[in-house]
Predict the 3D structure of the following.
Amino acid sequence: MSNDIGSVVTVTNQECIAKYERYLTDEKKASKNTLSSYLRDIRQFGEYMAAQDGRDYVAADEEDLGDYIDHLREEGKSVATVSRNIASLKNFYVWMKLHGYVEQNPTGKLVPDKATHKLPEILTAQEVELLLSQPECTDRKGYRDRAMLELLYATGIRVSELIGLDVADVNLSAGIISCRGRDKVRAIPLYPKAIKALKDYMDFIRPEMIASPTERALFVNVSGERMSRQGFWKIVKSYQQKAGIEKDITPHTLRHSFATHLLENGADLHSIQEMLGHADISSTQIYSQLVKKKLKDVYNKAHPRA
């Protein structure tokens, strides 16, 4: 796959890798270990992009890079591994921009982890309510956006899983969705408000939005075709601004908030692991740290002798 964006040079992923390898070898005189780790990190990012929606290095933006680093942390990668990946991608995109393959370097906001894992940002229950109340059900877009945000917080699924949902994956009478994750299909329950938002959208709005009667996608854009990751990112950002929430909210923020709020209210880690689709319980245990940190903060603020 190749891209021709503005004045950038058209180049495929394979060509990028081959040219970058020659650059590291011939100009940078990189050691075998450095060469191997850099190329492995870059190839893995390319595979991640291809698995999300078939796009390539040239098409990657800041949101894609941020999502990927979140993905590495969620998979339980060490601080050293995450930091090395960030360094690899930063160097790669500096080279890409220098050679005219991209107009902008999308790695600018990536910051290496400190000595310990950076805990993910979460929303309070009040901030979630505020965000979910922003879409106004006065037009098609409002109904669709309300359904998407409610579903995301109700299930904690990844943004790629959200936009990948088909109508056939929703069972409103049972109050569940079937989510096709990386390894298996998992059934996730919905709360009543999410069921109502989905029903309103599916019964009255989606039939008017789809471009073709054969469209399978649950959520579609204004053109009537499957919603893109970039499109949904923009939706979340617009409602964050409208709500006046200062935290940097991404679709992943609602996933983190979903898991943390469930844990705070008594859900066990293994059930949360199942709903999130984590292969390893260690990836889910980060939410225990978040709950402990919140309790400590509350204690320090509220205890008269703290």
Notes: The mean pLDDT is 87. Residues 18 and 39 are 10 Å apart (CA to CA). The longest strand covers residues 176-180.
